[in-house]
Every structure is written in structure tokens, then in C-alpha cells.
Amino acid sequence: MNSKKKQIAMIVVVYLIVFFFFWLSKTTFLDRMEIDSSAVDWEDRKETEKNSSSETIAIPGFETVRFNAKETSQLVNFHNPETNECYFKLTMIHSNGTVLWESNLIEPGKGIYSINLKAPIEKGEYEKVVLKYECFTLTDQSPLNGSEINFKLIVT
Amino acid sequence: MKKGMMSLLYLCAIGTTLFISRNIHAEETVVEYEVTGQYTLVIPSRVTLNTNSSTTMAIKTVNRNLEPDKEVEVLLTDGLAYDGEIELTRVNAPGTLRSSIKVEGNGVKATNPIIGKFSGFVLEETEIASIEFGAPQGQRLAGVYDTTLTFAASYID
After folding, report:
1. Domain extents in chain B
2. Residues of B with Cβ-Cβ distance to A64 under 8 angstroms
3. Is A62 within 8 Å of chain B by CB?
4. Out of A35-39, A114-118, B38-42, B70-74, least confident range
5. What is the pTM of this model?
6. In angstroms, what separates the C-alpha of B58 from chain A's closest C-alpha?
7. Which tens digit of pLDDT belongs to each residue from B30-67?
8. In angstroms, rounded to a whole number, what is the distance separating the alpha carbons of residues B68 and B105?
9. CATH class label, B38-155
10. DSSP E strands, chain B
């Protein structure tokens, strides 16, 4: 009988010891949050963005344009490539600085085949005539980077 | 006599042949077909500059088909405020920031703002220049600062 009591007492003691350690481990380790090992010494703000020049604009360029002399109506091949996500506004400027023609906003995928010059041009070959491409966003028409294409204008 | 006549006829025949053949040469026609040079310049629509490090942007071409011995140079014609620097203006508020602009490690000069050159027949998208912007300098008041750049492509004489 005595030995049975001892056995029960031993079991109770062992149970209490196990329970104590279990409780201890929970309160000392599991209740505390872990330290993030990926954190490093703070050295002021660092960049979170990379180069963000992913959106591009395709600008068609050419060597020559041919016009008929003494006519204001001319045939051309100007377009805004459909890959673009912006409007084009085109302005053609003579090498002497005179604006020959300007467009309204041209949507991506649209082109212009016929234009009316502000004034007819005399026969001749004109170097460094400029087609200026101004680019604007489709959403609020705010300006984007642009381009100018210099070409030879041949008037016959 | 008969022999003489035959010789005369023979000479006439040769003369006629030569005359006809000369006339045929005079009516030679030259057949021509011209493909004018063209290309597509590819530029970034906008570039967001990094705060503490440099930012790069590439100028590329695609579908370029230039005549032999022809070359096109690309220049920065608008947006350069000073030699090797662009100026960004604060939107809807006073304030500016400056940023350096370099090509192959050299500041872009206002007097000769060449960015790159290209030539030949290359259909694939090909980088012709890489532009490096420095981190914006100045009093960084909160807000958006911007400027637009204009690149000109021009055949070299």
C-alpha cells in the first residue's frame, strides 16, 4: 500500500515537473516574437525603385519628303505607331524657321496621308527641314519626351 | 562588174546593220527603283530619377534601313539647362532641382549635344546610346519635379 502511494506520488511529481517545464517554455520562448534576421544596420533611406523607363515612344524617321511646287495640298506618310501609348502633335518647320504645317493630336495607330501647307513652297531642295514630334499622355495630355526628325524636302 | 556590185551590196548591208545597232544603243532605258532611308527612333516616354543613385535611359532604333555611307546622329536639342545638367521644375509650386546628364561618362555639352549615331540596316531593336542622370541636387521640397527632353535625329552631311 505504501509502495502504491509512493508510485502515485512519483507520477504526480513527474507530471508536475513536465507541466512546469511546458509552462516555462511557453512563457519564455513562444510568447516572445522572433527577431527578423533579414534586418540590417540602418544607413539612411535607400532606393526602392529601379530605372522606370519601361514605357517608350516610337518615332518614325525618314531621309526625304517630296512635295509638288506651288501647291498647298501635299501627300505624306506621317503616322503614330500603334505600339505608342501617347498622342503625337506634329509640326513641320522649314529650315528658315517658317512653320509649314501642324497637326492636331494624332492617336496611336492613326496616320495622315494628306496635308495642307500654310503656303506653297518654291521648287528646290531644302536640307534640315524639321518634323517635330510632341508627345502627350492619353489620360490628361501632359507632355512627355519628344523628338525632332530632320529630313531633306525635295520640291519639284 | 558583178563582183563589184556584190561588194557594194555587202558594204551597204554592214553599214545598215551598224546604223541600226547604233540606234538601238541610243534608245537604251535605265530602270530605276529608289528605297529612301527610314528608321524608327525609340525613346523613353518619361524617366523617374532615383533619389540617391544614378538613373539610366536608353535611346534605341528599330527597323532602320539607311543607304550605304549614310549616318544619322541623335542630339539632345531641348531640356539641357547647362553644360552637363538638366533642370527639373517643381509642379504647381516654386522650386527647381538639378541633375547631371552624361553619355559614356561625359557630360552632355550645350554646344555639341550629341547623344549617339547609327547607320546601316538593322531591323531589331538596338541601343544606340545610354544616358545617365545623376541623383537630383538641391533643396528637395516635397512634390513632383519634371522636365521634358527633345531628341533630334539628323542625317550627317
Report:
1. 38-155
2. 36-37
3. yes
4. A35-39
5. 0.75
6. 8
7. 898 888 889 999 999 988 888 888 999 999 999 999 99
8. 30
9. mainly beta
10. 38-44, 55-65, 71-78, 80-82, 85-90, 96-103, 106-107, 114-119, 121-122, 126-133, 145-146, 150-155
